Automatic annotation (TrEMBL):
Residues 46-121 form the Cytochrome c domain. The keyword Metal-binding applies. The keyword Electron transport applies. This is Cytochrome C. Binds 1 heme c group covalently per subunit.
Length: 121
């Protein structure tokens, strides 16, 4: 009897584990599809002063004066891990604990900020 109960519990744990794994994989694929389907960023020149001003206004409280991170992650080498398009999507829509800025910043500010961060390698 004990072996049957343990077998059932073990089987249920496996099903739950596979369900969680499946959901995480589907979520990652959904993010990839969202990024892939997003239109390319406009080919506008980077305005470093405007990007730094946007950063100071909206990002510094979580990512720190020197991009080293505080509440939010370190962004000093963000461009070595993420493209400008990926950064744009994250800034616009938020991710994890980061809020979305699509209603706070203008689109050209988000684009400029994403391009500025993408150069940090």
């Amino acid at each position: 009897m004990y072996k049957w109960i343990m077998s059932i519990l073990l089987g249920a744990a496996c099903v739950v584990g596979l369900g969680v794994l499946f959901m995480q994989t589907a979520e990652r694929q959904g993010q990839t599809k969202q990024e892939a389907s997003a239109p390319a960023l406009p080919d506008t020149p980077l305005n470093i002063q405007a990007a730094e001003a946007s950063y100071k206004q909206s990002c510094i409280s979580c990512h720190g004066n020197d991009l080293a991170g505080k509440i939010g992650p370190n962004l000093q080498k963000a461009g070595s891990k993420l493209s400008d398009q990926q950064l744009y999507t994250i800034i616009q829509n938020g991710r994890g604990g980061m809020p979305a800025f699509k209603n706070t910043l203008k689109d050209d500010e988000i684009i400029n900020l994403a391009k500025w961060l993408a150069e940090k390698k």
